[in-house]
Amino acid sequence: MSFNRDIKVNPNRVSTGGGRRGAALGGGSVLMVLALVVLSQVTGIDLTALAPGQDAGTSTQASSIDMSVCGSGETANGEAANTYTQCRMAATAESLDAVWGAQLPAQAGTAYVAPEFHLWDGTSVSTACGTASSSVGPFYCPGDSTVYLDMRFFSDMESTLGAADTPLAEEYIVAHEFGHHIQNQLGTMASADRSGAGATSDSVRLELQADCYAGLWVHYASTTVDPDTGTPFLVTPTQEEISSAVLAAESVGDDHIQERSGSSVDSDTWTHGSSEQRVRWFTTGMNTGSVQACDTFAVADTEL
């Protein structure tokens, strides 16, 4: 999904480096630690560094991300976003801000408050939810209302998950994490029981709803304009681009990850949903553009 060249991009929309410091979320919840252990076993990715009680004040290591390539003033535009991944991240965040800034008040009666968006490329990052290692994929920390994304994830996306590293696939990942921020704003995250696992658990319903919210962004992205220029942020996606985002959603299904790791498919351990579910809910958001249609907590287990 390409950005229109005439939009303006603010490289400062993202922060970079080793992360920030703060109190760990939850104060060492045993249930969360166990959930992270289970999820690590399911995905083959070490997520235990996100466990509450980790020292969020320790030093971190991270190589620098050069945002200067995005330009400044008139040169920081859609062309830079189409060329450099870090610029595309900033532009994607601005597009998400514009879409949710319009749709959240209109559809949910809630004013949108933009999350922080932190890019990093290194061994660890310090967050209000704990210290995360580079093996953790993109995640949202409700403790500091921040989306964290290790830039190395995109280079690993194809080799590890079998998803093509395309612009819209990358943007889907970001939109999914912003979807968790929307859940945090609406109180959905706080009311859900995130300690459990299983095909119909609240954990899965949260992830599927975030997929639906990512699809909702795609629905509006090519018609929502950059407030600085009046130009739509993105060009209408081609069917090929949409297919790449659908493949990305499919590749992060719990069943797909279990199969690729050589494990048997066990729905009782799922925390994100099957490939079919993730594609279906992403498509629901993309086709309807409706926050209400994304209410995964309102459907029966058989309809999830």
From TrEMBL:
It is a single-pass membrane protein. The keyword Electron transport does not apply. Its main location: membrane. It comes from the Bacteria. Residues 1-21 are annotated as: Disordered. GO terms for biological process: proteolysis. The keyword Hydrolase applies. Keywords: Hydrolase, Membrane, Metalloprotease, Protease, Transmembrane, Transmembrane helix. InterPro entries: Uncharacterised_pept_Zn_put. GO terms for molecular function: metallopeptidase activity. The chain crosses the membrane at residues 21-39. PANTHER family: INNER MEMBRANE PROTEIN (PTHR30168:SF0), PUTATIVE MEMBRANE PROTEIN YPFJ (PTHR30168). This is Predicted metalloprotease. It comes from Actinomyces howellii.
